[in-house]
Amino acid sequence: MASMMRRLGARTADDRGAELIELALVFPILLLLVAGIVDFGFLFQRYEVVTNAAREGARVGVLPNYTVADVQQRVANYLASGGLTAAAPAPTVTYSTETLPSGATVPVVTVVVQYPSQFTFIGPIAAMVGGSGWGAITLQAASVMRVEGGAGAGS
Predict the structure, then answer these.
(1) 7-37 as b/e, with b when 16 or more CB fall inside 10 Å?
(2) Is residue 2 included in any domain, yes or no?
(3) Structurally, how many domains does the chain consist of?
(4) pLDDT per residue as tens digits for the range 97-116
(5) What residues make up the domain containing 83?
């Protein structure tokens, strides 16, 4: 009886293969975390391009002798040069005035750029487990600049 108890105790103390099981449990979670980091890195890069495209459009919008079509073309060119080639709605260009705290009004141009962005890894993974809402997101950026000296298409 003592030898049988000794053999049973030796079997339960054997940890061979425990690391493999732990790896099998943790590895998918680690891969999901890395895929999320990569996806959000791409998302941030696209957002920066959209933000800069809005700024570039506003810079063109404050210059004299440029039209709204010129602003929209500049934004489209900037998005394309930044690698964002998906179909995006035309940017919204608005000329208006804003009131300063001193009571004076100044002419401004507002350029709003929207771009649909797809999640590369997280969207398909979420779809495999029955999730939704991770397929696409619309990135939006706006830039407002003062039109100097009455220049710009809005004057």
Answers:
(1) eeeeeeeeeeeeeeeeeeeeeeeeeeeebee
(2) no
(3) 1
(4) 999 899 999 999 999 999 99
(5) 16-150
